[in-house]
Design brief:
Largest sheet: 7 strands, mixed
Shape: globular
Protein name: MET25 protein
CATH architecture of the domain at 59-138 and 275-385 and 474-522: 3-Layer(aba) Sandwich
Strand order of the largest sheet: 3-2-1-4-5-7-6
Number of helices: 21
Mean pLDDT: 77
Radius of gyration: 29 Å
InterPro entries: Methyltranfer_dom, METTL25, SAM-dependent_MTases_sf
Domain Methyltransferase: 66-343
Strand content: 5-15%
Pfam families: Methyltransf_32 (PF13679)
Oligomer: single chain
Number of strands: 7
Length: 526
């Protein structure tokens, strides 16, 4: 209640007078305490269909721990949403180097377009994807071995069933499975021996003559190509050219060799054609007005995803989703709140501009504004601090004293340039100041070392104050993040074409502090 927390600040001076109550109030208004989030387990259960068990591949084979955690959790959810909506195309906005995109494509056989504004990121994504495809078969084989091992362990805990019963269950399961992906998993794990593709045929087909097999192969080339594609799953980086000798000297080949060479040719064609089912990194700057069909020529019914979309990009992702009928679902995890544009921050009259905050009509009517300092605070990680990963107090102190110097010595109060990660490259405070002034394009020759150290000595006794102040900002961070996330959720709730929308905590906040996803599904057309 507002009354309960009214004594946190002094009524006259508006200064903080009750730290304990301040912390309680911040916790009270945090997202985890408000009860507005939908548990991830509930979402996955609601989306669950007849999806089959994956091959057990883990992304930590080729990503760091944080990225592996994010990709593993989010890719499972995205695949479930895509299956529920009946789409195979995914558009990854702000895809960066393609960690999520490539995994969605290779692990879940989704057709993914990754769009990023940075050419260097797109180039890195191409190169990373090329290398990853070369090793993917090894990852798949290892994953299948792990999965079979897990199944064996589970089977050992249950009574042994007869081979006939197991075979009946397996055949019944295969006959009732409709998707190519499910067929592929059953075939690869249980039914296909090493001798070749023709073992997929039924007992009736096995009695056919070799000549019949040749005729059947020739007449159903496209069908075989699709079936082979389902088995191949993921391709190596460089597809082999079509084996041209399969068309030569047919009269001199026995029928079995003809069939085998035809199959070899079709496999190679399937490899080439299925390149279109992999991951496509693209470079484009996305705004709320972006026409995806101008970027993606074969745009079809799809879903949009974004893993840590920066600043306004998260808001624009939701706007594009609501505006385009072909986009059936969205799953967006935002970040970099400090880069959001705010409609009411500077009270500028700019009716045509699309702002990152606020999005919902309720906050627009209130003229709500956070301000840059509050948005910067929203980026802090309370959960990490709580487990001992303290704030970088010294670097923050360096940055604070630097700001005093450039204001008092150079008269600069605002700059479009950034200091960046200068602290980690600096050997001392003097070195830090000089490196920073060069980045800001300010003349450091007018500033002797002694003057720099005078500023350091003047303020160093206040370092504890700075640390305490930043700890209060960390405590308040979840409350500001709540405001931004609920604004996005309310925007979706205001749209008439949305069947369901919610906030879902996807990640461990210690591993990945920006852990909440905004998810929405469109109403199905009648």
């Amino acid at each position: 209640d507002d009354d309960m927390f009214s004594s946190v600040f002094c009524e006259n001076s508006e200064k903080l007078i009750n730290v304990h109550l301040f912390v309680l109030a911040a916790k009270y208004y945090s997202l985890s305490n408000l009860g507005v989030c939908t548990p991830l387990e509930d979402v996955l259960e609601a989306l669950k269909g007849n999806n089959q068990e994956a091959t057990g591949i883990k992304p930590d084979e080729f990503m760091n721990n944080k990225k592996s955690h994010e990709v593993h959790v989010m890719s499972e959810l995205v695949d479930s949403i895509a299956n529920y909506c009946g789409v195979k195309q995914v558009i990854d906005i702000g895809s960066g180097k393609g960690y999520l995109s490539s995994f969605l494509s290779m692990q879940y056989n989704l057709k993914v377009y990754g769009i990023d504004s940075s050419n260097s990121n797109t180039s890195s994504a191409h190169e990373r994807n090329r290398k990853l495809k070369k090793h993917w078969r090894a990852y798949q084989s290892r994953g299948r071995a792990n999965l079979k091992s897990q199944r064996s362990e589970k089977a050992n805990d249950r009574p042994v069933e007869s081979e006939i019963k197991c075979k009946t269950i397996s055949e019944e399961f295969f006959s009732n499975t409709n998707s190519l992906q499910s067929q592929d998993q059953v075939i690869m794990q249980d039914l296909v021996p090493s001798c070749g593709f023709t073992e997929m045929t039924t007992s009736e087909n096995r009695t056919e003559t070799e000549a019949d097999l040749v005729a059947q192969t020739q007449s159903h080339e496209s069908k075989l190509s699709e079936e082979i594609l389902a088995i191949l799953n993921v391709l190596p980086a460089d597809a082999v050219e079509v084996f041209s000798s399969s068309y030569c000297n047919r009269g001199e080949l026995c029928e079995e060799e003809k069939v085998q060479r035809k199959i070899t040719s079709l496999k190679t064609k399937a490899r080439k054609s299925s390149e279109s089912n992999l991951y496509f990194p693209l470079t484009s700057y996305i705004t709320a007005e972006t026409e995806l069909s101008d970027i993606i020529t074969d745009l079809e019914d799809c879903m949009m995803v974004g893993l840590h979309t920066c600043g306004d990009l998260a808001a624009n992702t939701l706007r594009i989703f609501t505006a385009k009928p072909e986009i059936k679902a969205v799953c967006s995890v935002g970040c970099c709140y400090h880069l959001l544009s705010e409609q009411f921050e500077y009270q500028e009259e700019c009716c045509d501009k699309v702002w990152g905050f606020p999005m919902c009509q309720y906050l627009k009517d209130k003229g709500w504004c956070c301000g840059r300092n509050a948005r910067m605070s929203a980026c802090l990680a309370l959960e990490r601090v709580a487990v001992g990963q303290m704030l970088p107090t010294e670097s923050l102190f360096y940055r604070a004293v630097l700001q005093v110097i450039i204001e008092e010595i150079y008269g600069v109060t605002k700059s479009d340039r950034h200091v960046g990660k200068t602290f980690s490259k600096s050997s001392s405070f003097i070195d830090y100041v000089r490196r920073s002034l060069k980045k800001l394009e300010l003349d450091d020759s007018k500033l002797p070392d002694s003057c720099i150290m005078d500023y350091y000595e003047k303020y160093k006794h206040r370092m504890n104050e700075l640390e305490a102040f930043n700890m209060l900002k960390v405590v308040l961070a979840p409350c500001i993040e709540v405001l931004i996330l609920l604004d996005r959720l309310c925007y979706l709730k205001e749209q008439e074409n949305i069947a369901w929308s919610g906030l879902v905590k996807l990640f461990d906040p210690v591993k990945s502090p920006r852990c909440y996803a905004v998810i929405a599904l469109k109403k199905q057309a009648c």
